Amino acid sequence: MSAPFAIGIMARAPVAGETKTRLIPALGAEGAAQLQRKLTLQALQTAVQAARQAVVLFTAGDARHPFWAECTDRFGVRCIGQQGAHLGARMLHALQSLLQTHGTAALIGTDCPALQPRHLIDLRDGVQTARMAFIPAEDGGYVAVAAREPLASAFGPLDWGTSAVMAQTRAALLAGGWRAGHDWAELAPLWDLDRPADLERARREGWLPD
Questions:
Q1: Cα(75)–Cα(78) distance, rounded to whole angstroms?
Q2: Distance CA 77, CA 40 (A)
Q3: Which residues of 29-65 are buried (b: 16+ CB within 10 A; e: fewer)?
Q4: What's the confidence (pLDDT) of residue 52?
Q5: What is the three-state SS of 76-124?
Q6: Is 2 a residue whose pLDDT tops 50?
């Protein structure tokens, strides 16, 4: 690598009733919060394996939650509060923060247990030639993005959290004059753990953290 690579993780504090809310009917509020905690630790482990110590946790929710100190102690990562009026703005802020000190950067969430270090390495390699690279989600969003030159309009007020996000992102990139396969790359899609059916899939395929 000619340019250092950093990974940011967008994570919410594991507060019962405030996280993984679509799984509360299946797990209960406390169970959903515990799952959020486990998924965040798994995402940290994956990121650290791919980028060593160049990992930053961008936090939302309770800024004083003791879980953040646990993450810092266990993985040596920095915690920075998310900033922005909507998810896209918060993601762009996180990417731009990482790119101030690193040549390329990736951003992931905590909802994709199938994400492995090799996927992040592939993203890193993708932005050696393209300006941005994505791992789409099977549900129409995306589970990870990497950039060396992010296009701000791709992080505008899209329908974040819906099945339209990846299509709207492509439209924004095209509107910005970017060419698919040249200015941005897309890897094979993965899937998010958002709903009870996803929970069953994670158990069936062995991706659910212990």
A1: 9
A2: 13
A3: beebbbbbbbbbbbbbebbbebbeebbbbbbbbeeeb
A4: 79
A5: CCEEEECCCCCHHHHHHHHHHHHHCCCCEEEEECCCCCCCCHHHHHHHH
A6: no
The amino acid sitting at 178 is W
Q: Are 96 and 148 in contact (CB under 8 A)?
A: no
d(CA 56, CA 72): 10
CA distance 52 to 1: 14
Phi, psi angle pair for 108, to nearest 5°: -130, 165
Distance CA 197, CA 162 (A): 16
Range with the poorest average pLDDT among 10-14, 51-55, 82-86: 51-55
- How many angstroms separate the CA atoms of 110 and 167, rounded? 21
1 pLDDT above the threshold of 70: no
- Give 4's pLDDT tier (boundaries 50, 70, 90): confident
Q: Tokens for 54, please give them.
A: 């160049």
